[in-house]
Amino acid sequence: MADSERYSDAFESLDIATLPESIRAAIREIEAAAGAVRVLKWNPKNPRFVAVAVDLRVDLPTRGPIGGHDIRRIEPTIILIDTRDYPHDAPEARVDRMSFPADKVPHLNPVVPGQPPWMCLHRGSIDDWFAEHSTRELVERVRGWYRDAACGRLMREGDVFEPTRLQDAKRTMVFSAAAINGVVMRHWATAREAGHGFAFARLGGDGVRHTGWEAGVSISLMPFLMPDPKAEALELARAVNELSADPNEVQRATLAICAWAAPRPVDRYFGRLPSNYGELVSFADELGIPLRAAMTELAAQDGQLLKSIPIALAIARPRPLQGTRSLIEWLCFAVLSDGELADTDLVFSLGHREPLTPAYARTLSAVGKTTRLERPLVVGCGAIGSKVALHLAKAGFVAQRLVDHATLTPHHVVRHGLLGDSLGKPKADGVRDAIIGLYPGQRELGTDATFGSIADVLDDPAKLEDRTLLLDATASSSVQYQLIDAALPKALRVCRIEIAALGQLGLLAYEGDNRNPRLDDLQLHLFDMARTDASISAWLRTHATDQPTFEDIGIGLGCSSATFRIADDVVSHHAAAFSRSLRKLASQDRGHLVIMGEGEDTPTTRTFTIAPVTVLAVEERPEWKVRMAASVVTSTRAHLDVRGHKESGGLLVGYVNLKRKIVYVSHALEPSRDSHGTRAGFTRGVEGYPAAIKEIEARTGGILGYVGEWHTHPEGSTKPSLIDRSALAEIQHRLDAAGVPGVIVIVGPRSITAAMHSMHSVRGRREP
Amino acid sequence: MTVTRDATITFFPVGNGDTSLITLADNTNLLIDLNVTQASGDDDEPSCYDVHEHLLRELPRDADDRPHLDVFVVTHPDQDHVRGVETAFYFGPPEKYGKKHKDAGLIIVDELWFAPRIFGAHEDALCDDAEKVRAEAERRIEVFKASKTKVLDAGDRVRIIGFTDNEDLKKLAKIMVAPGTVLDSFNHKHRDDFEFFVHAPFKRDSDDEDGCRNDTSIVLQARFAVGDDKRAALAFFGGDAGCCIWEDIFNRSDDEDLEWDLLLAPHHCSWTFFSETSSEDEEHSDTIMGFLDKRREGAVVVVSSKPIEDDDDNPPHYIAAERYREKVGKDNVYCTADEGTEDKPEPVHFSITANGPVKDRYGGSSEVRSSAARKATITTPKTYGR
Predict the structure, then answer these.
(1) What is the ipTM, given to two decimal places?
(2) Is residue B146's pLDDT more than 60?
(3) Chain B residues contacting A, CB < 8 Å?
(4) CA distances from A721 to A643, A665, A671, A713, A746 (A)
(5) Average pLDDT, chain A
């Protein structure tokens, strides 16, 4: 080959007049940027591609290219224009000089032998780049490519090696390089020489359909190697292939060859890759890879089961490959042969892809390890639960235990994470299968499913003790109370997510350490926010008209009902927000309440840290408890007149759960103007109170109201005095009409006491 | 993994004058001379490149968003080497730098270098810009004298390049740098990746009342290190130094201090580099030819001047340019007036590689050009109609 021989010497010339004006304009731009051009036919049979040959002037370091590579001041270059797709497809830049050192520089897209080397001009899509740049700038970029090649700076990160660039994403081979590298490294450690092995391979891969070599194909290799083509492995592959005649039903199995060179670093780049079997064998020979020996062994066992033979060849590189920490590069091919192998048999290059693992998914999702999300228990795999479970699984949190008692029916899929192919499956099983399906070939993901209710889980300690987070996505009040009552393992954090107000609100309650604040405390806090928050108030007021019974407050709305109207995108919106909040909260030890507003235009997420509540026993009525918000403790304590010892007091606002015998105190009203305190006692006034209570009742849809009174004992003991008791009796007497107990809370500098009237006459409608 | 950028040398298109910027890998910037006209420009320089804007864009800023130039080297106080210092630089106590200075885009010169000749008694004829430099030099010297042992602040730092018998200056030994010295500390920071070898001015030139200013120029050999190679690229900057100075340098110096990959043609490609005699007879000094032969393989010459024409101008001198071309090859002589187009001049820009400087495309230039072009378009009235 003459030193200055060009690929374009063989091209026929082309009459510019036959080209459309846009192409002629592009050629004029090239001429303006680079000087005289020759316009040629790239392919004599196909007029679509126009090769514009130019001599580009290249700037070199004064003492010549770094590394002594043969890059010259004048580089013949072909700008290849696709007349049909220009300017949407950027012209390709090809090296025209046959003696160009294509194996010495990175950033070349491999081409089949005989084609001019193809420069990679842009890390992203060159078509996207070209959409915003001119042909003239493209020519400048080509000159820059040569200059960068001469300066040794095509790879900016000097300590990594660029793997062979394969533009064709249609054909891939999927296997864990780390797993197979282990075999190669062990072989190198003992023998320090070339070697080979065989891997069980599936054409089409797990879950990937094989649609033919032209359309594209994916081959999956099992992550272990056999030293020789074992008869049992071949028998197994044959048996797999006989399961069905339809390759879409059962992916075809065969043996793949994995062969590697001795551990001597290869620093050449592959600007050209083999396109037929003869070239592939020479390629392997050049690199010192024993492909011939492996092929002979495979043939001796009659091991070519399919038309294609998958082949993966490994070489050592001088530096770790870009994007990995490994020195080993795998070059993947498939030979298509009808039996007797011939040099002319077609060879395809395949891009190597790593199988998806949870760790890889986490890297891709830019998500770190979050201990509490590692083993979640997801109760309720409905619309919200399934979507959140899948979000978490895609972020690598796969070891989920999924619990649901329903199967997927047609109307569910309108807003469910699963699609039509899961109809009829128990929802929990469907979500489990979907998660496993994300990670083909990965064993021990730890995903499991229980077709049952929350009771089935709570009854079985084994289902709870290895869990870190219990995610209640049932929107069921019953489940909520079962969880409140349950004695859960200490390490298990409870979190509840639900959609309310016809999708206008998304609510996430995350319990604090030692289950304080608990789900019910968080719920009360939410209700209390209605005093000041218009959107929550609006929802509670609507809720009150729909559901007049006091005890039946459930926040969430079950999405599984066919009568329920809400769009999938609204559910997805909340599910995404829940999943994001969970990732942030899962490392928190304090309780949290997250409120997502699905406003018309501006969705907002508000996150509140909720301090633990103070739980007070009631001496007179031990079956009762008072749960008092931290803010109430703070606001009442502020009235302790430690110096003057004058008593003070006011009203308590909250909610009484008769069934569970809990008085929730969410808010304390300040002393009224006509209240009067002395060292000896306190007279609670009335001014402003009726209006204030009425306002709170209105704003909370009647959920919150008067539950009792508070006063201070600045001098110390918070034991109720005789006067206190008589006041309490009077309060209870009035409350009897409403059927609720009254409570007084006495706040002292060191203690807080809750008291109820001991001679109770509460006529609770649901008292057991 | 750290990605360091290559060191660069940028020669700005400023007509017959010098403005050369050395930028090191950590964005330390050394500017050798300045010749900028107001951005609006006079009619003789319709396409002048906005050096001030370029510097404001590229120079690092401190916590108060004030732009800093590490070192400004005044090779000699001629107009075409100090033009525009007042509009580009802040001169005065750094602590007095205020909002109005920032609004005016004034750059703080952390360390100022100059030759002692600027204080020569015969320098009454200094141009206004040079007077400004002299006043600032005097201010900094006073700060130094008052500072005793304290390290001067950025903005007060000062270095005098050369030798002197001047008694006043003799007390300043700590800030004097004698020829023959290697300088590897800039703006109070020691470097491993770059140094200057100081060739001139010599003692006799500095105080010689009869010598012309061009013969008192600072002459520096810049040495760039890449990897283990301390001499990956060698570049000469000699201001307007004339033939006899270069002959002296050649005769006094070791070979390694004379080698070069890049030479900024002295005095804007003037014939005075090649000979003491008139250009008419085209008799060049053989010693100068000897210096040009100290170039390493592939070396380049940069001419900072207006376009080189085949006429009687000097500088740039056509025969002088031809001499350079004969030595390094016609493709290896770059004139700052030829870069870019007439309407959109661009700097001549080199990146430093292990194998010497490579002529490079200035990274931001196309954007700068387009924004400058847009600015020019919208600030120019247009008349439409028939």
Answers:
(1) 0.85
(2) yes
(3) 1, 3, 6, 233, 261-262, 296-300, 331, 351, 353-361, 366
(4) 21, 22, 20, 10, 10
(5) 88
